[in-house]
């Protein structure tokens, strides 16, 4: 018998993308919260600053997961073309080759 199941290209498989993003978000949230808790225990004495370091770590984790997931859904960001030193405009009116006498 022929297999009638269609194969979805990875570019259009939204279920796999959502699963990967959810997994990435949970992992980065938990790991960065633990890093914030460890840093808070190591560096701070008051409970308020320890909780603040945990919240900061959680925010960093969620922010990095959001960036990675937006890159996963939208594709890689377009690269900006930066002018190099040789392509920078000259200050004189004449091109360099005609300015040399």
UniProtKB/TrEMBL annotation:
Membrane topology of this protein: Single-pass membrane protein
Broad class of where this protein is predominantly found: mitochondrion
GO cellular component: MICOS complex
InterPro entries: Mic10
Locations listed in the record: Mitochondrion inner membrane
Keyword Membrane: yes
Claim: Nucleotide-binding is one of the keywords in the record: no
Keywords: Membrane, Mitochondrion, Mitochondrion inner membrane, Transmembrane, Transmembrane helix
Function: Component of the MICOS complex, a large protein complex of the mitochondrial inner membrane that plays crucial roles in the maintenance of crista junctions, inner membrane architecture, and formation of contact sites to the outer membrane.
Family: Belongs to the MICOS complex subunit Mic10 family.
Name of the molecule in the record: MICOS complex subunit Mic10-like isoform X1
């Amino acid at each position: 018998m022929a297999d009638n199941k269609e194969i979805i290209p990875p570019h259009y498989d939204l279920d796999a993308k959502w699963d990967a993003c959810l997994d990435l978000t949970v992992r980065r949230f938990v790991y960065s919260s633990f890093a914030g808790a460890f840093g808070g225990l190591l560096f701070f004495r008051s409970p308020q600053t320890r909780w603040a370091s945990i919240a900061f770590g959680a925010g960093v984790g969620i922010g990095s997961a959001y960036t990675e997931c937006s890159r996963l859904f939208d594709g890689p960001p377009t690269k900006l073309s930066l002018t190099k030193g040789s392509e920078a405009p000259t200050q004189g009116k004449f091109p360099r080759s005609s300015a040399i006498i």
